[in-house]
């Protein structure tokens, strides 16, 4: 009896030791992200591959809605229990988290020339005080959708290369021709916010802030010209007032139902157009430009490692893995986004909309680095709100372009002074 009891105790101790050893050899990394069904499926595939390469490592994906994602992360960081890895948007998220001390500098985990393969703008927007607090993953940008039926009715020939892009005046003229000579009720509209308007400002040689990001640069000739041109869309009747900055009617729906001939927005609309714009043909071309060059809307996101991670080196390794050339290209192709690595552009081929998506990829590489630096600031959401409010007053309230530029300038400077 005593012998059996001793044997039982010995086996129990042995099981505890083995269980403890297994627990010590097992590492869990938590990965918080939003995403549609395709994105989540692809993340799961990459997780399975990474786990197969790293025995004892478990990557637990925390799937969350995009709405409220940042607020939840902020609460978790304040409590000291944020996930190891978080997804962040190209709208000031990376600088905001870094400035608050919630994420870590990834420099110690990156090779010396690691950044060289990334678009300058994408790398700029994940950086804070010249150090990478994230790795950019994908981007999306804007181009010019057009109703092929209406363009043919009006006898319009669209640009076939970036070098052939219409000037601002030419685009307004073509929009008027389409409106007057096709079944379109209006010439064009954009899916607006303050951030998206910036592509025209930078394309016209303007800037939101000075080179050193210390003051507003909005009270300038370039800014006034840009405000006046976009305001003219509404004043001339080419664009419905219901699609202003703060209006509720969505320009994409107006394009789907045939109300407008041209639609300015991003590649994420492609599946929706395929499924819902079935009675008319559509295609994509380049945005209008100025003699000062071109710029593009900078959408997209990447990944950061939080200060709460107990395994930052492993977390950084996983972020590098899902952002490597092959995984980035595959994700972009399947989820209809654009890569932010030059190497991922090589042999890029989409299963659908290949020509359109390659055009978006070409445009995405033109984003101005200063544009990205402004958009990457922790206070960018406040800057965007100021631009949006004042532009709405110009578009639907009749406020002059000069007053709008001055108001934006003064309000941004006041915001900067609070920092």
Key words describing this protein structure:
18 helices, globular, D-Maltodextrin-Binding Protein, domain 2, 49% helix, alpha/beta, six-stranded mixed sheet, four-stranded mixed sheet, 419 residues
**Biggest sheet, in brief?**
6 strands, mixed
Tell me the strand order in the biggest sheet: 2-1-3-11-6-12
- Highest-level CATH class of the largest domain: Alpha Beta
CATH architectural designation of the largest domain: 3-Layer(aba) Sandwich
- Please, how many domains? 2
Question: What fraction of the residues are assigned to beta strands by DSSP?
Answer: 5-15%
- Give the fraction of residues assigned to helices: 40-55%
Distance between the termini: 76 Å
Extract low-pLDDT stretches: 1-24
Average pLDDT over all residues: 92
Order of helices and strands: HEHEHEHHEEEEHHEHHHEHEEHHEHHHHH
Looking at CATH, the homologous superfamily of the largest domain is: Periplasmic binding protein-like II
**How many runs of DSSP E, i.e. beta strands?**
12
The SS-based structural class is alpha/beta
Describe the structure in your own words:
The chain has 419 residues and is an alpha/beta fold. The chain folds into two domains: 181 residues, Periplasmic binding protein-like II (D-Maltodextrin-Binding Protein, domain 2); 194 residues, Periplasmic binding protein-like II (D-Maltodextrin-Binding Protein, domain 2). Helices cover 49% and strands 14% of the residues. The strands form three sheets. A six-stranded mixed β-sheet has the order 2-1-3-11-6-12, with helices on both faces. A four-stranded mixed β-sheet has the order 8-9-7-10. Strand 4 and strand 5 form a beta hairpin. Helix 17 packs antiparallel against helix 18. The radius of gyration is 25 Å and the shape is globular. The N and C termini lie far apart (76 Å). The N terminus is likely disordered.
